[in-house]
UniProtKB/TrEMBL annotation:
Stated name of the protein: Dihydrolipoyl dehydrogenase
UniProt keyword annotations, A-Z: Cytoplasm, Disulfide bond, FAD, Flavoprotein, NAD, Nucleotide-binding, Oxidoreductase, Redox-active center
More details: The active site is a redox-active disulfide bond.
Cofactor binding remark: Binds 1 FAD per subunit.
Designated gene of the protein: lpdA
Similarity comment: Belongs to the class-I pyridine nucleotide-disulfide oxidoreductase family.
Alphabetical list of InterPro entries matching this protein: Class-I_Pyr_Nuc-Dis_Oxidored, FAD/NAD-bd_sf, FAD/NAD-binding_dom, FAD/NAD-linked_Rdtase_dimer_sf, Lipoamide_DH, Pyr_nuc-diS_OxRdtase, Pyr_nucl-diS_OxRdtase_dimer, Pyr_OxRdtase_I_AS
Lineage of producing organism: Bacteria, Bacillati, Bacillota, Bacilli, Bacillales
Organism: Planococcus maitriensis
Main location: cytoplasm
Cross-referenced SUPFAM superfamilies: FAD/NAD(P)-binding domain (SSF51905), FAD/NAD-linked reductases, dimerisation (C-terminal) domain (SSF55424)
Positions with a binding annotation for FAD: 56, 147-149, 314
Length: 469
């Protein structure tokens, strides 16, 4: 880093290099802007380093291990299947290294200046970027804040060697014999499922009446059935009270059904939400307009109350999703370039990599009715699809929600194998203003899981082929 008090000038300064920040920086550079990106820890942010990507690598390991042990009905009998967890961790780390290295190359290839350190706003056109050894002033015309979020810490469950967050769960040296997960949202349920597949005895404590609150009960019931089959105990309406930690494990006390109970485990994973990283960066110096929970208020172009400063991702309202941050990053960069781009969350998908997977896009049946639509909700089961049966993955369904008067597609939900990939077709159809007839008339390859979406569209039309009307 350059040392000294002479300001370095740049057109657009991006703070944070996660999936929102690095995408914003590249798109801004593509529009001809001189771009500087600031990162205090690691290129790729939480998502690529300790979130989305490594967790999916470990989920994949868990699936392979579980399948190797339980494929007898397909004629595959493996008598002594073992898991080399050190090698599994090395696989995960290799995936991360490849992707983060690729992102850094993309930034450099687009002539984005990468600066290591923490940014602190001095005024609406100036930041000080500091590392352990020096500080440098940068002057910018526009800035995009993309600092992401961090796990919420419960006061009675301070993070330690045995009380861990999602980052700690991905860096364990061994598979826990017993694991307690506090919080049955998508992070807790995903990681709990992964470790259950690797042999852990998992207990999930959730304060709400049900886990995976963002998804329909019809969908989550199938996931809960799968968790039960894996031996995962799900305790809802449970309030975690405290933890006692020893060198060898933890003892967690909780209240459920009017009784206080205690369970022991090797580790307790706390996943009760994430808080935006909007503190300790000098935003108070700007008098920038803030909303609830430390979120920054923005308009449809991701512009804050200060016209030349933008904010994207987990630090603004909405779902905390990597692809939402990337989308907003493009919008902000294009807005700075004078384009008329603005956010439209009509078809932003939400995915949970449970077993089976969950995916939803657009409106649910309930949401559509609340918005005044008269709807048709059509479902087709995985169990009636040849490819699903051949994969031995027949649990689940595709559900399409359409406007009754003309079949306009309003939303779709999938629970089942490959749901995370299948949801893209429904998202595209919603974005394109397509009807269920458009989907039904599109020739889908056979035998594929994608046919289930086509079949659900035919159910909506009242002309199903492969189930009785």
């Amino acid at each position: 880093m350059v040392v000294g008090d002479f300001p370095i000038e740049t057109d657009t300064l991006v703070i944070g290099s996660g999936p929102g920040g690095y995408v914003a920086a590249i798109r801004a550079a593509q529009t001809g802007q001189k771009v500087t990106i600031v990162e205090k820890e690691y290129i790729g942010g939480v998502c690529l380093n300790v979130g989305c990507i490594p967790s999916k690598a470990m989920i994949s390991v868990g699936h392979r291990f579980e399948e190797a042990q339980h494929s007898d009905d397909m004629g595959i009998v493996a008598k002594e299947v073992s898991l080399n967890f050190e090698k599994a961790q090395a696989f995960k780390d290799g995936v991360v290294k490849k992707l983060t290295g690729g992102v850094e190359s993309l930034l450099k290839g687009n002539k984005v200046e990468i600066v290591r350190g923490e940014a602190y706003f001095v005024d609406e056109n100036t930041v000080r970027i500091m590392d352990a050894d020096s500080a440098q002033t940068y002057k910018f015309k526009n800035a995009i804040i993309a600092t992401g979020s961090r796990p919420v810490e419960i006061p009675t469950f301070k993070y330690s060697e045995r009380v861990i967050d999602s980052t700690g769960a991905l860096a364990l040296k061994e598979v826990p014999k017993k694991l307690i997960v506090i919080g049955g949202g998508y992070i807790g349920t995903e990681l709990g499922t992964a470790y259950a597949n690797m042999g852990s005895e998992v207990t999930i404590l959730e304060g709400a009446p049900d886990i995976l609150a963002g998804f329909e009960k019809q969908m989550t019931s199938i996931v809960k059935k799968g968790l039960k089959k894996k031996g995962v105990e799900v305790i809802t309406k449970a309030s975690a009270k405290g933890v006692e930690e020893s060198d060898s494990g933890v003892s967690v006390s909780y209240e459920a059904g009017g009784e206080e109970k205690t369970i022991d485990a090797d580790y307790v994973l706390v996943t009760v939400g994430r808080r935006p990283n909007t503190d300790e960066m000098g935003l108070e110096e700007l008098d920038i307009k803030m909303g609830e929970r430390g979120l920054i208020e923005v308009d449809k172009q991701c512009r804050t109350s200060i016209p030349n400063i933008y904010a994207i991702g987990d630090i603004v309202a909405g779902l905390q999703l990597a692809h939402k941050a990337s989308y907003e990053g493009k919008i902000a960069a294009e807005a700075i370039a004078g384009e008329k781009s603005e956010v439209d969350y009509l078809a932003i998908p939400a995915v949970c990599f449970t077993d089976p997977e969950l995916a939803s896009v657009g409106l649910t049946e309930e949401q559509a009715k609340e918005e005044g639509f008269e709807v048709t909700a059509a479902k087709f089961p995985f169990g009636a699809n040849g490819r699903a049966l051949a994969l031995n993955s027949s649990e689940g369904f595709v559900k399409l929600v359409s406007r009754k008067e003309d079949g306009l597609l309003l939303g779709g939900q999938i629970v089942g194998a490959g749901a995370s990939d299948m949801i893209a077709e429904i998202g595209l159809a919603i974005e394109a203003g397509m009807t269920v007839e458009d989907i039904a008339m599109t020739i889908h390859a056979h035998p594929t899981l994608a046919e289930i979406t086509m079949e659900a569209a035919e159910v909506a039309l009242g002309t199903p082929i492969h189930i009785i009307k």
